[in-house]
Design goal:
By secondary structure, the chain is of the alpha/beta class. It has a single domain (2-120), classed as 5'-nuclease (Rossmann fold, 3-Layer(aba) Sandwich), CATH 3.40.50.1010. Helix content is 50%, strand content 14%. The chain has helices at residues 7-15, 22-30, 37-46, 57-66, 77-84, 93-105, 114-117, and strands spanning 2-5, 32-36, 71-73, 108-110, 123-124. Helix 5 (77-84) crosses helix 6. The chain starts with a strand and ends with a strand.
Amino acid sequence: MKVLTDTHALVWALSDSKRLSDTARELLSTVEVVASTANLWELVLKSGRKNSLIEDPNSWWEEFVVRSGIEILPIRPNHVIALAGLPRLHADPFDRILVAQATYENCLLVSCDAQVARYGEFVRW
């Protein structure tokens, strides 16, 4: 089983694990973690904002994701097709593509977002 992370969970897992729930921390330490290109995209687009998770997302990504050997899941056409079939439970495009990727790839999704959790049992926190 693989686990895909929402962007907050990825940053917290690699930089500040005390912010994770006990369940998320245990899950992320026992199964293969996968990061999405959508995580990097979100970090880059939101950098520079006062509530930005990472000040320099490119350097952070290289240091914490690439050098750690974490598998990076690209956004594929089948993910976008799966996205089209999702109910509109959440408006955030980054969270929606992560849900679509997790669904299509048969991964668990670690997220603290209550709106994301509405997509089903495959979402954990």
